[in-house]
């Protein structure tokens, strides 16, 4: 009986990831959000695009879909040529399971026109889905709304 229990424990331990492995795989959501916001603010187009999977999807607050890293880079190029972004996130929920993770919450953003100094204030909600690719968490889909969350 003891041999059977020991054998079962050995088999299960080789199949089920340890708690340490699961913790190591969980993304640091704050670091991911901060890197994304900093690259956008500093207009680092290549670094911004590199945070996305090659086939990622970005859905704007007006429902437009940009599919693929190249399309997302083009969107960023257009946006950063017209504005400087100062965005702040307020995460409401996050979870990870295996190679997928999500972060959802609210944001507030000030867009400044560098030519005129004029500003626009935006608020809304976001959902960011991450996939673990080659040991790195990349954005696989990002969805924005232009409405503040209701409770």
Order of helices and strands: HHHHEEHEEEE
CATH architecture: Roll
CATH class: Alpha Beta
Care to count the β-strands? 6
**Strand order across the largest sheet:** 2-1-6-5-4-3
Please give the alpha-carbon distance between the first and last residues: 55 Å
Largest sheet, in brief, is:
6 strands, mixed
Description:
There is one protein chain. The longest helix is centred in the N-terminal third of the chain and has 14 residues, at 2-15. A 6-stranded mixed β-sheet has the order 2-1-6-5-4-3. It is built from 5 helices and 6 strands, in the order H-H-H-H-E-E-H-E-E-E-E. It has a single domain (27-144), classed as Nuclear Transport Factor 2, Chain: A (Roll). The protein has 151 residues and is α+β, with helices and mostly antiparallel strands.
Features:
globular; six-stranded mixed sheet; 151 residues; disordered N terminus; 5 helices
Give a brief description.
The chain has helices spanning 2-15, 19-25, 29-41, 45-50, 69-82, and strands at residues 52-59, 65-67, 84-97, 100-112, 119-133, 136-144. The protein is of the alpha+beta class and 151 residues long. It has one domain: Nuclear Transport Factor 2, Chain: A (Roll), CATH 3.10.450.
Helix-strand layout with pairing:
Elements: H1 2-15, H2 19-25, H3 29-41, H4 45-50, E1 52-59, E2 65-67, H5 69-82, E3 84-97, E4 100-112, E5 119-133, E6 136-144
Parallel strand pairs: 1-6
Antiparallel strand pairs: 1-2, 3-4, 4-5, 5-6
